[in-house]
Amino acid sequence: MRTNDRTRKPGQSLLRLLPPFLRDHLPDFIKYGVIGVGGTLLQTGTLLLYVEKGHGSPLVGSTLGFVLSLLFSYAANARWTFKQSKRSASVLVKYTVVSLVGLLLNLLILYLFDQVFGWWYVYGQITSIVLVPIHNFILNKAWAFRTPKRERR
């Protein structure tokens, strides 16, 4: 064990695994994650209910869950994570664009796992649960909820 390994706090090694942007905005990322858990449960619950109750395709179920999750997470993130005192149509549009790109990434992963690899669709959803929120947080923080320079003063 190196000297600096003994003085390092538990968890610091894990933090180094995060991209620098996430480390720099860790409190917001944690808030985003808490809201994301609720959104993920909403989306995944909708997906599972839709598919397991015999209604059809995992892609349709995930899309329905996405819509519910989008509405919930926009309202919660605007208020708590990104502290938007007033919600604007432009922020909602940007948030929706980021979320739609995340949805496409989620659907691509589901498609690959289910249709290409022939694996259980839930494995694809688990993979999406890890990758898509990181992608979405970075774009939301850097673009959708970014405060214009003239307002930062």
Automatic annotation (TrEMBL):
Membrane-spanning parts: 29-51, 57-80, 92-113, 119-143
Chief site of localization: membrane
Localization in the cell: Membrane
Domain GtrA/DPMS transmembrane: 31-145
InterPro entries the record matches: GtrA_CellWall_Glycosyl, GtrA_DPMS_TM
Protein's GO biological process: polysaccharide biosynthetic process
Keywords (A to Z) from UniProt: Membrane, Transmembrane, Transmembrane helix
Recorded coiled-coil stretches: none
Pfam families per the UniProt record, alphabetical: GtrA_DPMS_TM
Membrane topology: Multi-pass membrane protein
Family to which the UniProt record says this protein belongs: Belongs to the GtrA family.
Protein name: GtrA family protein
Organism: Saccharibacillus brassicae
